[in-house]
Amino acid sequence: MGAALIVDAVRSPMGRGKAGGALSGTHPVDLLAGVLTALVERTGVDPATVDDVLVGCVGQNLEQSATPGRQAWLAAGYPEHVPSVTVERKCGSGQQAIEFAHWGIAAGAYDLAIAGGVESMSRVPMGSARGDADPFGPAVRARYPDLVPQGVSAELVAEKWKLSRGDLDAFAARSHRLAARAAGSGGFADEIVPISGVTADETIRPGTSVEVLAGLRPSFNSAKFPELDWKITAGNSSQLTDGAAALLLASPERAAALGLRPRARIVASAVCGDDPVLMLTGPIPATHKVLAKAGLSISDIDAVEVNEAFAPVPLAWLAEFDLDPERLNPRGGAIALGHPLGASGARLMTTLVNHLEQTGGRYGLQVMCEAGGMANATIIERL
Q1: In this predicted structure, what is the pLDDT of residue 131?
Q2: Residues 153 and 280 sit within 8 Å (Cβ to Cβ)
Q3: In the predicted model, what is the mean pLDDT of residues 77-82?
Q4: Rounded CA gap, 321 and 304, in Å?
């Protein structure tokens, strides 16, 4: 298969996904349109030459129900002949959009593609598409009678890896500390584009401490597991967030013809499934799979982004791999920056590309846990 190059990557600021949040007054189509406009303007590509726009989005209802990438492309004033498609692999939707663009370029179906994601969790509430319906059905429930919400799965992961409440809160405080440091030093300046007058992430709380987090009450409970010592709180979980991100990918031939200077290349990618009850452990086998495909070891990786859906996810991952903890989520993660579901995969990739450039790292790994017990993993090389 041929190569796929990342030419550029941008994201919106992260806004709190609730009424009154910095981006809650912005329609998700306009949120994404702002990011697409910035990407096209920064790269100087002719929008008429883009083959496809692939957009991750989980809540495909209400204001996100009409193929948001298509509407955002039109809202930006770009040519009508360029199509779009919506990708939904739960929390990994934005990362899967990047992978579909990667595979399309590698197969020769695309020369130039935009991949990204959007989620306005203030305007399209999480779970609103489901309502009171049961998405599993009797056969799945018969096979897995212990199916539980993600928060309870996070508790099961914490229990299996013997992670204490103190471990989780310390990691959460670290997320805010590292994100605040990156923001304060200008580390996010090359990736954030202003949207609706908002220029910086609203979600980071620099003063977060273990002591403050220790005062929060656990958020979940389940009669199925009365033996658990409940530890997951709003403070050691990802934040509901409004956000969007987008990347321009190109074949080497098209990049050269247009005089584009690529920032990274995709080395390998992998997807896998895992236990749907534990649900959040997929990043571990996905990492083994993508490292094998790339012919690399974990020691070759300079920075790793493990999505911080809940603090036990990256901590369990770290317990399984011999990696310097300083290389894990070095600019904080979704606990501090937020988790705009369909956009997170593209946001993490944007941050990873910038981190590698600013630190001189060569290889980066991104891996996401996903509802239902799935995971995406991608390795990139800075160019």
Answers
A1: 87
A2: yes
A3: 98
A4: 11
Is position 57 annotated as part of the catalytic site?
no
Q: Which of 91, 102, 176, 272 is catalytic?
A: 91
Q: How confident is the model at residue 224 (pLDDT cuts 50, 70, 90)?
A: confident
Q: How far apart are CA 259 and CA 208, in angstroms?
A: 45
Nearest Cα to 109, choosing from 1, 218, 232? 1
| Cβ proximity of 226 and 38 under 8 Å | no
Please count the CA atoms within 13 angstroms of the CA of 364 that sit on its side-chain side: 28
Long-range contacts, 211-215 (Cβ 8 Å, 24+): 213/169, 213/172, 213/173, 214/165, 214/166, 214/169
Q: Among all chains, which residue has been given the structure tokens 């499934």?
A: 273
Backbone angles phi, psi at 56, to 5 degrees: -80, 135
Active site residue 176: no
| pLDDT range class, residue 342, cuts 50, 70, 90 | very high
Report the distance separating Cα 355 and Cα 350, nearest Å. 9
**Residues 59, 124: contact at Cβ < 8 Å?**
yes
List Cβ<8 Å contacts ≥24 apart for 76-82: 76/33, 76/36, 76/37, 76/40, 76/47, 78/36, 78/40, 78/47, 78/48, 78/50, 79/47, 79/48, 81/48, 82/47, 82/48, 82/50, 82/51, 82/52, 82/53
The answer to whether residue 81 is catalytic is: no
Query: Each residue of 7-53: pLDDT tens digit?
Result: 999 999 999 999 999 999 999 999 999 999 999 999 999 999 999 99
Q: Point out the catalytic residue in the list 27, 102, 176, 339.
A: 339
Neighbours of 134 (CB within 10 A): 9
**% of the chain at pLDDT higher than 90:** 96
Answer yes or no: are the C-beta atoms of 237 and 151 closer than 8 Å. yes
* pLDDT beyond 70 at 120: yes
